[in-house]
Amino acid sequence: MKKVLVEAYLSNNLGDDLFVEILTERYKNVEFTFNGGENSRIIEKKVNTKKGKFDFTKISKYDAFVVIGGSLFQETGGIIKWIKIWLKLFLKVIFFRLHRKKVVFIGFNFGPYKHKIFRILYGFLFRFVNYLSVRDIESYNLFQNNNNMHVYPDIVFSSYENNYSENDQRNSLGISIMDFGNKVNFQDDYEKLIINLIDNIDSDLTINAYAFQSSDNINDYLIIKKIEKHIHKKVIVHKYDGSNLKDFLEDFRNNKYMITSRFHSLVLAMLYNQKFFSISYNIKIDNLLRAVGLDKFKLVPNDFKNEKKISWFIKNINKSLNDEHENYSEKLTKEFGEKSKKHFEYLDRILGK
């Protein structure tokens, strides 16, 4: 049995756990050891996964080193902090390559970053990686001179064949509600926006609120419970806890309409053929909306206090969304699904499919 060491974001976050699910299900005959993730529940539920710690003396037992995830390379904290993070990853890559092991980075976007040296150092590191794939053209353009760099839609789109839904959902509205953490200055305005939206949505719609992550540092569920105290309608709350992936997704997909905050709530809304509006807090969401021609159907943080824009948003939701939302179509989602599978083309060769 081939063995792979994996680094991923392992904090019981739905989007990142979907990466783990897709990777481990694709290669069922491979043993995956995940570096860290002591509290990750999805790893505990898989038969071909285990938790571990990176050990330079044990590199020889692995066939490959895989880094999988979305927003993996962001410049956060001071220069000393991110240089330490960069150096640790660089040493891992170098040691694997010195042992003639394959190194693969898949599914990420690069940034945001503030300083040119951040991009330069990661560009240098990427030169030692056998295969890299990003999920947006903007990240690709930063490193397009690297012949090992590729660009495909988000990895979750690769589950298209098993997840695309026909239009048979219940007459309900789902809302992905997000804890942005302490790195933004618009959390309070965002919560007031959600309260405003819920209180002004047509009363005949059942409203479901979804918490994609409820960890120590980021807790969507606590934000939902906080919002519940200020709304005048019943909201059914669904909390992802790392152990209920199948049930959480099944309930999410049954909504006809969706207001998305988290990036993967948008991806899932497309996979599930839902009519959606997006709250876009990050360029990765803007890029995806632009790719499907729906970048005008969104609110951004600067709109959170704009009563005119919010009124427009609510009006369109109450009109059961605009017909233009049909334009992204099953054909485009299927196309994304086929392209997304190419994230794994190199791993298919070295691990077998």
Quick structural overview:
This protein is an alpha/beta fold.
Return the domain count: 2
First CA to last CA: what distance?
13 Å
Strand order of the largest sheet: 3-2-1-4-5-6-7
Question: SSE order, as H and E?
Answer: EHEHEEHEHEHEHEHEHEHEHEHEHHH
At the third CATH level, what is the topology name of the largest domain?
Answer: Rossmann fold
Biggest β-sheet description: 7 strands, parallel
Number of strands: 13
Instruction: Using the coordinates above, name the CATH class of the largest domain.
Output: Alpha Beta
What is the overall silhouette?
globular
Task: State the secondary-structure class.
Answer: alpha/beta
CATH superfamily descriptor of the largest domain? Glycogen Phosphorylase B
Cα Rg: 20 Å
Number of helices: 14
CATH architecture of the largest domain: 3-Layer(aba) Sandwich
Strand content: 15-25%
Instruction: Name the poorly predicted regions.
Output: none
Query: Residue share in helices?
Result: 25-40%
Mean pLDDT over the full residue set:
92
What does this structure look like?
This protein has 353 residues and is α/β, with parallel strands linked by helices. The protein has helices spanning 14-26, 41-45, 79-98, 116-126, 137-142, 160-163, 187-200, 220-228, 245-253, 263-271, 283-291, 307-318, 329-340, 345-351; strands at 2-7, 30-35, 49-52, 64-68, 102-108, 131-134, 149-151, 170-176, 206-211, 236-239, 255-260, 275-279, 298-299. It is globular and about 60 Å long. The mean pLDDT is 92.
Write the layout of secondary structure elements.
Layout (H helix, E strand, L loop, with lengths): L1 E6 L6 H13 L3 E6 L5 H5 L3 E4 L11 E5 L10 H20 L3 E7 L7 H11 L4 E4 L2 H6 L6 E3 L8 H4 L6 E7 L10 H14 L5 E6 L8 H9 L7 E4 L5 H9 L1 E6 L2 H9 L3 E5 L3 H9 L6 E2 L7 H12 L10 H12 L4 H7 L2
Parallel strand pairs: 1-2, 1-4, 2-3, 4-5, 5-6, 6-7, 8-9, 8-11, 9-10, 11-12, 12-13
Helix pairs in contact: 3-4
